[in-house]
Amino acid sequence: QVQLVESGGGLVQAGGSLRLSCAASGRTFSIYTMGWFRQAPGKEREFVAAIRWSDGYETYTDPVKGRFTISRDNAKNTVYLQLNSLKPDDTAIYYCALGPWIITTTIRDAGQYSSWGQGTQVTVSS
Q: In a 3-state reduction of DSSP, which class is residue 8?
């Protein structure tokens, strides 16, 4: 079993930046894909970004392309999400998730991920 712990959320003004971290512990040899999802009040959880451990493949949802960057530190079993040029619409709870090797066509599907963190709040003021 893998445990995921997120950190780095907070309150920031529009245009500001945050860096989210997600550290994995436990059966970390099972890490193949890690992703970030977010859920805003009254909305469904949505995909934000994902990275595949083996080949470094990255993908982003269109609203965050060019503003957010996902990266990984293999030695620390940690994935990061750099959030730049933040907008009020980015306000949400951000969750990291871990899964097996996931093919490109389904890597944005939350159902492909087996472990989830507790979430970290990101609030962007206008």
A: coil
Nearest to 99 by CA among 120, 79, 83, 123: 79
- Interacting residues of 79 by C-beta distance below 8 A, sequence separation 6+: 21, 22, 24, 34, 36, 51, 70, 71, 72, 73, 96
Residues 35-79 pLDDT 10s: 999 999 999 999 999 999 888 899 999 999 999 999 999 889 999
Dihedral of alpha carbons 67, 37, 40, 13, sign: negative
As given in the structure block, the two tokens for residue 50 are 């994902």
Beta-carbon contacts of residue 4 (< 8 Å; ≥ 6 apart)? 22, 23, 24, 96, 97, 98, 115, 116, 117, 118
| CA neighbours closer than 13 Å in the CB half-sphere of residue 90 | 32
